[in-house]
Amino acid sequence: NAGVTQTPKFQVLKTGQSMTLQCAQDMNHEYMSWYRQDPGMGLRLIHYSVGAGITDQGEVPNGYNVSRSTTEDFPLRLLSAAPSQTSVYFCASSYSMPSLRERHNEQFFGPGTRLTVL
Amino acid sequence: EDQVTQSPEALRLQEGESSSLNCSYTVSGLRGLFWYRQDPGKGPEFLFTLYSAGEEKEKERLKATLTKKESFLHITAPKPEDSATYLCAVQADSNYQLIWGAGTKLIIKP
């Protein structure tokens, strides 16, 4: 199993450009999520999905879109890049979705995409 | 407001010098506390889940403990390969999404 894969590993954008960060998992996990990691801060949830066709917003969704057409893929789109979106982006997956009744499962993370917006 | 704070921000130890990392949390009700390890340039990797005060989990040189206000990650006789950033995250009753701490960067010198 490849686990969680992300592409590209590095990307430089100019302000206003758009792009898609790719994420795929081969573990048949229902739950997938996107985080951003900034220096001195904890991981922050951008968007998440509980299955194909179902997505929802996390803590910091503005400026990002997601879709989940298959169980395996969960791309993150930056609509119009801004310098504030310079960050390291991680995709993660887990077997099932956490809820108010269910606890979080172990999450599997991809290697990350380091994005710089000039 | 639910909050997770990790200390220290960075810790330098000599090989074999035991120590502890702290994760203190303020949440309305704890459903679970998670420890992850993150190597430079990589994504976090799961270590432990703790659910209730008094619980302990061990893995090689690492032992995680939990009280009602904080968790400790004890590292015994560390080796250089234990160098990494250790992340703590909490799932609270009020919000099923994880709240992450900023991490402790651990450096073990040979």
Question: Main traits of this protein?
Answer:
heterodimer; A: 118 residues; mainly beta; four-stranded antiparallel sheet; globular; B: 110 residues; five-stranded antiparallel sheet
Describe it.
The complex is a heterodimer of chains A (118) and B (110). By secondary structure, chain A is an all-beta fold. Chain A is built from no helices and eleven strands. Chain A is globular. The relative contact order of chain A is 0.32. Chain B is mainly beta and 110 residues long. Helix content of chain B is 0%, strand content 59%. At the A-B interface, strand 5 and strand 10 of A face strand 4, strand 5, strand 9 and strand 10 of B.
List the helices and strands and how they pair.
The complex is a heterodimer of chains A (118) and B (110).
Chain A: E1 4-7, E2 10-13, E3 19-25, E4 31-37, E5 44-51, E6 54-57, E7 64-66, E8 76-78, E9 87-94, E10 108-109, E11 113-117
Parallel strand pairs in A: 2-11
Antiparallel strand pairs in A: 1-3, 3-8, 4-5, 4-9, 5-6, 7-8, 9-10, 9-11
Chain B: E1 3-7, E2 10-14, E3 19-26, E4 30-38, E5 45-50, E6 56-59, E7 62-66, E8 70-75, E9 84-92, E10 99-100, E11 104-109
Parallel strand pairs in B: 2-11
Antiparallel strand pairs in B: 1-3, 3-8, 4-5, 4-9, 6-7, 7-8, 9-10, 9-11
Give a quick rundown of the structure.
The complex is a heterodimer of chains A (118) and B (110). Chain A has 118 residues and is mostly beta strands. Chain A is built from no helices and eleven strands.
What's the alpha carbon Rg of chain B, rounded to whole Å?
A: 13 Å
**What is the general shape of chain A?**
globular
**Structural class computed from helices and strand pairing of chain B:** mainly beta
Count of β-strands of chain B? 11
Which structural category do the helix and sheet elements of chain A fall into?
mainly beta
Radius of gyration of chain A: 14 Å
Q: Give the termini separation of chain A.
A: 36 Å
If you average the pLDDT of chain A, what whole number results?
93
Strand content of chain A: over 45%
Distinct helical segment count of chain B: 0
- Main sheet properties of chain A: 7 strands, mixed
Largest interface: A-B, 25 and 24 residues
- What is the H-and-E element order of chain A? EEEEEEEEEEE
Q: Uncertain regions of chain A: pLDDT < 50 for 5+ in a row?
A: none
Overall number of strands of chain A: 11
